[in-house]
Amino acid sequence: MVEMIASKRIGRPEELETLLACYLSLNADEHHDCIVKVFRQVWFELNPARGAASAPAPRS
């Protein structure tokens, strides 16, 4: 997933938030926790210097 996001040059928080919303809308509620965890990992891999304080908050 990191490679796909990097190749599409998705890096701004707004872009990742839009992509996350898309994944959440396309998948059952039972998978949402896992999807959010993966997106948080992606955020940290793409923005290691920013840390947890600036990680996008999951939307419900």
From TrEMBL:
InterPro entries linked: Ovate, Ovate_C
Coiled-coil region(s): none
Compartment annotation: Nucleus
Alphabetically ordered keywords of this record: Nucleus, Repressor, Transcription, Transcription regulation
Stored Pfam families: Ovate
Residue span, OVATE domain: 1-45
Any one Gene Ontology BP term: negative regulation of DNA-templated transcription
Entry function: Transcriptional repressor that regulates multiple aspects of plant growth and development.
Annotated PROSITE patterns: OVATE (PS51754)
This protein's GO CC annotations: nucleus
UniProt KW Ion transport keyword: no
Protein's name according to its UniProt entry: Transcription repressor
Main location per the UniProt record: nucleus
Domain of life: Eukaryota
